[in-house]
Design goal:
Length: about 130
């Protein structure tokens, strides 16, 4: 769990309800809260919690503040995607201008890489030493 959530005042506010509350994260849903049904002892969850859904032995829910923070996170993430896309598009456009030169450089390096192989094969074919019998 990121430190931004653990040091958030939201968790301090959740401590006032005297419940064992876990904070979980799913990419599609964002942050949400969990409480075991056995921890409630026949009590109802406070009205500040919304979207209460029982799943197995736990209740999944969130609060209005948590929904707002999830919306801010989604907005920030979308902004990062847009800025990253713009940066990468600009980079590709800048590199595209030099792609012909880069191809020629790669071709030259490949040719230089083949020179030792050809010279090695050529040296092997010449009788450079005498074998004694």
């Amino acid at each position: 769990m990121p430190t931004e959530v653990t040091s958030s005042p939201l968790l301090f506010e959740l401590g006032q309800y005297d419940l064992n509350i876990e904070v979980k994260f799913e990419e599609a849903r964002g942050y949400y809260l969990l409480t075991k049904k056995s921890d409630l002892d026949k009590r109802k969850l406070p009205s500040v919690f919304t979207n209460i859904a029982p799943q197995g032995q736990k209740f999944h829910y969130d609060s209005l503040d948590l929904c707002k923070k999830n919306a801010k996170l989604r907005h920030s993430l979308n902004e990062i995607y847009v800025l990253s896309f713009e940066t990468i598009t600009t980079l590709i456009d800048d590199v595209r201008v030099y792609i012909g030169c880069l191809y020629k450089v790669c071709e030259g390096i490949a040719m230089l890489d083949m020179v030792p192989i050809i010279s090695y094969a050529d040296n092997r074919s010449l009788p450079s030493h005498v074998v004694r019998r």
